[in-house]
Design goal:
The chain is an alpha/beta fold. Helix content is 42%, strand content 10%.
Length: 470
């Protein structure tokens, strides 16, 4: 198997880096960064953009101080319904059928044959009726107008609110998956003021099929945490990937064949001669905690190796105390209580900002990320091979396909036999190859590109686009 360094460039049309010289001080260096407190995806995407956020704060559109009770109720009902359906999906027979019916409303149409997809869908019309009839979001926009700055939002409804209530500054909407449904785009896309940050080439092309004008689309990549990148030269990231490879290829099958190429990509100084941490797996459940049982099967299967301290495992509970307690109890039931906080760690925090910090810190020594194909799919760009749990929802089906396409992710085998298939894959060198593919093919510069666009928003659009790194 070979490293496909050029394949993604050819297939997906990556924007090249270039030089850019400012002729005047940018008018805007800050923006209102707005997410929603629904699951983790929208806030995780916003977290790295805090550097741009006014007063360093990300606003949650559904839970900001002073939100009207009527707005809070609409947001709450939407969140509760989704989380309940995510859990109910596991109910035999009826759960799968009800989820499938619900998922139809957020389904992403087939990309081919290419055609006009600008007709609004039912979900979009529903959201717009709430904005028009219930004054949903009007209070938020009035508050933002008191300090008029560009808006960057990771949730499409906020962009629609800003446009409907004629917000005075530019509106930017960041897509958070590798493909998006028609719901992300305004009723009349050709006339819309909304700009889009596309996390990959497919989203850029999808937006055009939905009728968004090309000048309103910026191919930026997904914003990744700067503490895992280390600046535009990716110094921290290169060190992390270099240390990771030895755990991912214990027989050196892949490293032996591609040592020179790896050294060239990472820098010889970032390709050490020995590993500096045990094999480490991070298992992350979604915001609803629906797949927590898979984590239990993993530790059951790896119990012997964990007991002998042959590997580390991080069980990610996020901000869910019930998931945290569930993991702790199951670890003890397996007789592994003495491993807690040693080679078995449960990542938990009281709030999402602290959780994101802990999670991003754990990634420095994570070798394999095991998760559903959510927004975390983009984290493969950090040189992380991804084992995928079953997808939940249409957008995750497309995320899964994207990971398979760039060869950095694979479906999990039966978790009950993790001890067998995981180590077979390690001995084959596949995980090391997947790590390099993720590093080379995944978009790494989203945070820096978005910052560049906001800081230089009055510069020539073409000039901005030509300097974006992917």
């Amino acid at each position: 198997m070979k490293i496909l360094i050029l394949s993604y460039n050819r297939i997906f049309g990556i924007i090249k880096a270039g030089d850019f010289f400012m002729t005047k001080k940018p008018k805007f260096a800050k923006a209102h960064v707005i997410a929603v407190d629904m699951g983790y995806g929208h806030q995780r995407a916003a977290y790295p953009l805090k550097v741009l956020a006014y007063k360093g704060k990300v606003i949650n559109a559904n839970s900001y101080p002073g939100i009207p009770a009527s707005d809070r109720k609409i947001w709450h009902q939407s969140r509760e319904s989704y989380e309940w359906l995510s859990k109910f999906k596991k109910t035999p027979f009826i759960g799968e059928a009800i989820w499938h019916f619900f998922d139809k409303f957020q389904q992403i149409d087939n990309f081919y044959p290419k055609r006009d997809l600008s007709k609004p869908n039912v979900q979009l019309e529903y959201f717009m009726r709430l904005i028009e009839k219930k004054n949903w979001g009007k209070d938020l926009m009035q508050r933002l107008e008191k300090k008029p700055l560009p808006i960057i939002t990771t949730f499409f409804v906020v962009a629609f609110m800003a446009e409907y209530y004629k917000y005075s500054q530019d509106i930017y909407c960041l897509a958070t998956d590798t493909d998006i449904s028609r719901t992300w785009v305004a009723m009349s896309p050709a006339q819309s003021r909304i700009n889009y940050f596309a996390p990959n080439y497919r989203v850029e092309q999808r937006l055009k099929l939905y009728g968004v004008r090309p000048e309103k689309i910026f191919l930026t990549g997904f914003p990744l945490p700067t503490e895992n990148l280390g600046g535009a030269d990716l110094q921290i990231l290169k060190q992390d990937v270099g240390h990771r490879l030895f755990n991912l290829d214990p027989q050196a099958r892949y490293i032996r064949n591609y040592r020179e190429t790896i050294s060239e990509q990472l820098g010889a100084e970032n390709f050490p001669k020995r590993k500096h941490h045990p094999l480490t797996i991070t298992f992350a459940v979604g915001g609803a905690g629906a797949q927590r049982d898979i984590g239990v099967e993993i530790i059951k299967s790896l119990r012997r190796r964990l007991f002998k301290k042959q590997l580390n495992i991080n069980l990610v509970a996020g901000i869910r105390n019930d998931v945290h307690n569930f993991f702790k109890q199951k670890v003890k039931e397996q007789g592994l209580g003495r491993c807690l906080d040693k080679n078995i760690k449960i990542i938990f925090a009281e709030n999402k900002e602290d959780y994101f910090k802990k999670f991003d810190h754990a990634l420095h020594t994570t070798d394999i990320l095991w998760t559903k194909p959510s927004e975390l799919s983009f984290y493969t760009a950090l040189g992380l091979p991804i084992i995928m749990t079953p997808a939940i929802g249409s957008q995750e089906d497309f995320n899964r396909k994207w990971l398979m396409t760039i060869a950095s992710g694979t479906d999990q085998e039966d978790p009950r036999y993790t001890d067998q298939w995981l180590y077979d894959w390690l001995d084959s060198g596949w995980f090391a190859e997947a790590a390099i593919e993720g590093y080379l093919e995944g978009p790494k510069f989203g945070t820096y590109n978005i910052q560049k666009i906001i800081e230089h928003k009055y510069s020539e659009t073409k000039a901005i686009k030509t300097v974006l790194q992917y």
